[in-house]
C-alpha cells in the first residue's frame, strides 16, 4: 500500500467529501467486478474502494493525513467490493437513489398473467392432409374459473391490499456498508410480491383463478399440410394464472400411411404391375385418384383416371402425371404423381402357353439368347433401392 490514497482516487489533498464521493462513483463504475472481471481490474477496484473507505470517513481520513494508513491496509476488512456481498446494482442503487417508488422499484407483480401454449397431435388420412378437413377435437386446458371470474377470491370476497408493503409488492431492506446505507428492494413475503392478499380463496380453483376443463373444438385443417405441420388456434391454449389471457393451441399433424400412395413432399408415388403381354402389346389401366378417398356416395369428384401403358413398356419405367399429386399449402401448385410400372413375367405355364411362347421365341430368334451384360443399366431393384435412399 505504498500508493497515495488521494492519487488513487485522482483527487486533490484538500478535496471535499462530495468530490471524493463523485470520484469514487466514477471509478467504481469502471472497475466493478460485475463490469470488468479481469484480475488486475479487480485488484484496482479493491484499492480504490479501500481508498474511498478511508477518505470518506472524517476520522480515518484525519488519521491518514497525520501519518499514513492507520487501519492496517487491505487485510482487515476482508476485501472490499468483492467479498462484501454488495452487487454492482446495489452500489449503483445506493448512489443513484434506488429508493422505493423512484426508478429502482418495479412495483407489484401482476396476479394475472398470460397462459401457456398447448399442443395436441392429430392423425389424419393422406387425402385429408392433401385437400383439407374439418375435425372435432377434444381439448383439455385450463379455463377461467366461473365461480370467481378469475380473481381467485371466494364469491362475495375480494383481494385486499397487503398491509406489509401497502400494495407495492416489495419492501426496502437496508444494509450498512462502507459506502453508507445501501437500500435494496425485495419482493414482499406475505403477499409474495403481488401487493394484494386473497383473504378467502375461491374453493373451486384454490385461488388460482382457473380450472381444468375438457371441451370440444372444431378445427379446420387446410389442404397441403404434412406430418409435423402445426395449425395455430389463437387464444385456445391454457388460460393464465389469475384468469389471464389464454395462450395458443397448436394442432400438430400426423399423416397416416396410405395403402396405395407414398408421399414425398407434394409428389405422390405408386407402383402398378402389368402382365408381360400387356407391357408388350400396350393397354389402358384405371388407376384410383387420391380424391377417391374423400368421395361420398353422390360426390362428383374424379375417382379414377386412365393410365396408358404404351406398347413395349419396360419394367421399372416411371410415368409422371402432372398435377395429380398433393396440393401445396396456400394454393401453391399441385404436385405430380409418379407411377412406376413393373412387368410381371408369367409363371406356371400350361402346355399350350409354353408352346406359344416357344413359337414366339423361335420367330424372334430368341431361342438361345446371349443376354446383354452391362454395368450401367439399372435393374428394378436398383431403382427401388434408389427410391428408398431418397
Ligand atoms: Zn375460482
Ligand atoms: Zn405485500
Question: Care to describe what's here?
Answer:
- This protein has 390 residues and is an alpha+beta fold.
- It has 9 helices and 15 strands.
- The protein has helices spanning 5-9, 17-31, 39-55, 58-67, 88-96, 126-131, 276-281, 351-363, 380-388, and strands at residues 118-124, 133-144, 160-161, 170-177, 180-187, 196-197, 210-221, 230-233, 249-255, 262-264, 267-275, 283-288, 304-309, 317-321, 337-344.
- The protein has a 4-stranded mixed β-sheet with strand order 10-11-15-14. Strands 1-9-8 form a 3-stranded mixed β-sheet.
- Strand 10 and strand 11 (267-275) form a beta hairpin.
- Helix 2 (17-31) packs antiparallel against helix 3.
- The longest helix has 17 residues, at 39-55.
- The radius of gyration is 41 Å and the shape is elongated.
- The chain binds zinc ion (ZN) (2 copies).
